[in-house]
Design goal:
Elements: H1 2-9, H2 17-24, H3 28-40, E1 44-47, E2 50-61, E3 67-70, E4 78-80, E5 93-98, E6 110-117, E7 122-132, E8 135-142, E9 150-153, E10 165-174, E11 179-190, H4 196-204, H5 213-219, E12 235-236, E13 243-246, E14 255-261, E15 267-274, H6 285-293, E16 297-299, E17 302-304, H7 309-315, E18 323-333, E19 339-350, E20 353-356, H8 357-364, H9 368-373, H10 378-398, E21 408-412, E22 418-423, H11 428-450, E23 457-459, H12 465-476, H13 491-504, H14 506-519, E24 524-526, H15 550-564, H16 569-611, E25 617-626, E26 629-634, E27 639-643, E28 652-654, E29 659-661, E30 666-668, E31 672-681, E32 686-691, H17 692-699
Parallel strand pairs: 9-11, 12-19, 13-20
Antiparallel strand pairs: 1-2, 2-3, 2-5, 3-4, 5-6, 7-8, 7-10, 8-9, 10-11, 14-15, 15-18, 16-17, 18-19, 21-22, 23-24, 25-26, 25-31, 26-27, 28-29, 29-30, 31-32
Helix pairs in contact: 4-16, 10-11, 12-14, 13-14, 15-16
């Protein structure tokens, strides 16, 4: 009966004993007794004679004060209004209850009860000196608007920091929710230093460029070159045509590829991945630091690597013309893209050429100069694109969803100020490498699964039906006819719907693409093989980027220890079975933090860019609508809010159609609009627009630029 009551409480408008009795048929006296037990055990929360589901999770506070709570093991987050976050700070573990939900709510709403564990151990910001009648005192004012606290510092704890310095202060005591005590741990720089704002954000997420001393000491024992004589049992690929294909400005190359046509007409695909685990040994300082970081982080003016440069740009980088150790995944595909055979081996390669996406794309576009320069590999490039087309076509046939995730690159001037934001594009060469990496990742995951070996899988679970249905309903408002599946939505259903929008309502595609992305479950790492919904794959892991992702490094270690060198198989099997869950969880958490860090840096830079352009006019697209206004996305990726109070007239939010409606006007997602930038704050990561047509009436100003 406990489960029945908990299930009833998850439904809209079921919160009193009478409601529960009506929903479950359980006698009222039994309901009261069970609720008493559930309340005592922490499963329900009683407030004003109403009962709510009680949970705990990690809260992320957004710049405008509202937040989202993530509960481990649940796909969808809980939305928390600013006035319901209590004293919780960004990253805190909180106790909360689930608020009454209407059937139209997209996310469950929640209210924080209390903070169970503080995430923040530091305050990052400017050291300020103040004087009063009692003397001089110092404090660090938080640079983070989502964590608005002051950390008071005793003079003897300044550690050579001077007023005006940008510092990291370690908290030693909470005096109240907004006031702490501590000491200066690190001086990060000064207010006008180029990139100091980015440094503050990186520090907040615990991403540091510097490596600890034990790591630097271990690096001294790692060679600068490969002594081939030490590896007589490795498969030698040095006489094969093998190339790397990366961006023009790439410094580390952890994957190389080779394609050839076999005598039987099939395709041979070799994917060769830097054997990082040969140098990063489990339990050593390098490995412990790599696990702590779990991922490289790519910010506008820097890369914060998972591994030190001696590895990432040196002995583990598959540089042209030098011997390098690899794990090789060799695959044979027929002309329909079916995998017929595969082998996974330790190997040695010598890259024939360091190719760029730019040059490979030129070759595929018949640039004679580039073709002549790389004529030795030109036939292989043509075979590569043929195989790529086959593999991609088969994925699409299976129902893989080709989400277009917009990614913007910021260009900064010498002082660290943003100049432009450009949308990164993918051409044939980029997609070719993507196809080959996907093939290797799928093959390795398949092998680990059928071998019943522990693995860190990359999983993407099925989305919630209701979330996807809302997007299908949105597509219908554009006039397109789509059939919404009733019980289960397959990847093919989403693929067909998105293709329909792309082919017939191109102006709405990017916005609906973003909505569908938000409706998807978040991909994560797991020791369980749950498949990958978006890729329409039953088996998937990350194997191809061990320089920048710890799960890939872990998969390499599992392959080498349990398959290639199974000397202590039983002992190692037990050991890895014990740790793959924790590594999956840690890697998922750090990946999420890296994404948040990269996003916050971009939001800060975009707000900084718009601070210099107050009053200017821009063209954009309405990309989301809420009860408090609508967000407009500019062509350069900058997004700003038109608050409902800045619209001319009285507007109602129609949640069913996702529109804002007045007697005279209706705004839809996907509408093209002209806006004036009226406010921007780099500190608050906030940008406010007003419609050009409403500007004069709302502001009384007529001098927009």
């Amino acid at each position: 009966m406990k489960e029945e009551i908990l299930e009833a409480l998850s439904k809209p408008y079921v919160h009193t004993i009478k409601d529960i009795n009506k929903a479950t048929g359980i006698k009222r006296i039994d309901v009261e007794d069970i609720l008493t037990v559930l309340k005592k055990d922490g499963y329900v929360y009683k407030f004003d004679n109403r009962y709510y589901l009680r949970k705990k999770g990690v809260i992320q506070i957004k710049d405008r004060g509202f937040g989202f709570i993530h509960v481990d093991g649940e796909d969808a987050d809980y939305y928390v209004d600013a006035f319901n976050t209590k004293d919780a700070a960004n990253g805190d573990i909180v106790d909360f209850y689930v608020l009454p939900k209407t059937s139209d709510d997209f996310l469950d709403n929640a209210c924080v009860i209390s903070v169970l564990e503080r995430k923040n151990t530091h305050v990052f910001g400017k050291l300020i000196e103040k004087k009063n009648k009692k003397g001089t005192f110092y404090f660090v004012a938080s640079h983070d608007v989502s964590y608005d606290v002051k950390c008071f510092i005793k003079e003897e704890d300044l550690n050579n920091a001077v007023p005006g310095a940008i510092v990291s202060a370690k908290i030693t005591k909470y005096l109240s929710d907004a006031v702490t005590e501590g000491y200066i741990e690190k001086i990060l720089g000064y207010e006008n230093d180029p990139g100091i704002d980015i440094s503050l954000i990186a520090e907040k997420y615990s991403f540091y460029k510097e490596f600890p001393e034990p790591v630097n000491e271990e690096l001294s024992s790692i060679p600068n070159s490969v002594d081939v004589s030490l590896y007589p049992n490795r498969k030698d690929f040095r006489n094969e045509l093998i190339i790397t294909i990366d961006g023009d400005d790439s410094k580390d190359f952890d994957d190389a590829v080779s394609v050839k046509r076999l005598s039987n007409g099939n395709f041979y695909l070799g994917v060769y991945i830097a054997d990082v685990s040969e140098y990063v040994k489990e339990g050593h300082p390098l490995d412990e630091e790599a696990l702590f970081r779990a991922t490289s982080v790519y910010l506008a003016d820097r890369v914060i690597p998972m591994l030190p440069q001696k590895l990432s740009n040196g002995i583990c980088s598959l540089n042209e013309g030098v011997d390098r150790l690899v794990l090789a995944c060799e695959m044979e595909f027929n002309l329909k893209g079916k995998l017929l055979n595969y082998e996974i081996n330790e190997g040695i390669i010598k890259s024939t050429h360091r190719m760029t996406y730019n040059n490979v794309n030129k070759m595929l576009n018949n640039d004679e100069e580039v073709i002549k320069k790389y004529q030795d590999i030109y036939p292989m490039i043509l075979d590569m694109i043929s195989l790529s087309d086959i593999l991609r076509g088969l994925r699409v046939k299976k129902g893989a969803i080709d989400f277009e995730v917009p990614e913007y690159k910021a260009t900064l001037d010498k002082d660290g100020h943003p100049i432009t934001f450009e949308l990164r594009t993918k051409d044939k060469a980029e997609m070719l490498i993507e196809d080959f990496m996907l093939a290797a990742n799928e093959t390795v995951a398949y092998h680990m699964s059928i071998s019943n070996l522990p693995c860190v899988y990359r999983v993407h679970e099925n989305p919630k039906l209701e979330a996807v249905k809302k997007v299908f309903d949105m597509i219908k408002t554009t006039g397109l006819k789509v059939i919404t599946p009733k019980n289960k939505i397959l990847p093919k259903d989403i693929q067909k719907a998105m293709d329909l929008v792309k082919d017939n309502k191109k102006e709405s595609y990017s916005v609906i693409n973003q909505m569908m992305l938000r409706a998807m479950a978040k991909a994560k790492y797991s020791e369980k093989n749950l498949g990958h919904y978006g890729l329409a794959m039953d088996y998937y892991c990350h194997f191809t980027s061990p320089i920048r992702r710890y799960p890939d490094l872990m998969v390499h270690r599992l392959i080498k220890t349990l398959i290639i060198h199974p000397e202590n198989f039983e002992e190692n099997l037990t050991h890895f079975m014990d740790i793959v869950h924790d590594i999956s969880v840690k890697s998922s958490v750090k990946e999420r933090e890296a994404i948040d860090c990269e996003r916050e840096v971009m939001d800060m830079l975009m707000a900084s860019y718009m601070e210099e352009r107050i009053g200017e006019e821009f063209e954009g697209t309405i990309d989301s609508i809420t009860k408090f206004g609508m967000f407009v996305l500019l062509d350069n990726g900058v997004e700003g809010l038109i608050h409902i109070s800045n619209l001319d007239g009285y507007f109602n939010f129609n949640e069913a159609n996702m529109t804002l409606e007045s007697a005279a006007k209706t705004y839809h997602i996907g509408d093209k609009v002209s806006v004036i930038n009226i406010n921007a704050s780099k500190k608050q990561r906030k940008i406010d627009f007003i419609l050009k047509e409403d500007y004069d009436k709302i502001t009384g100003v007529t001098d927009a630029k």
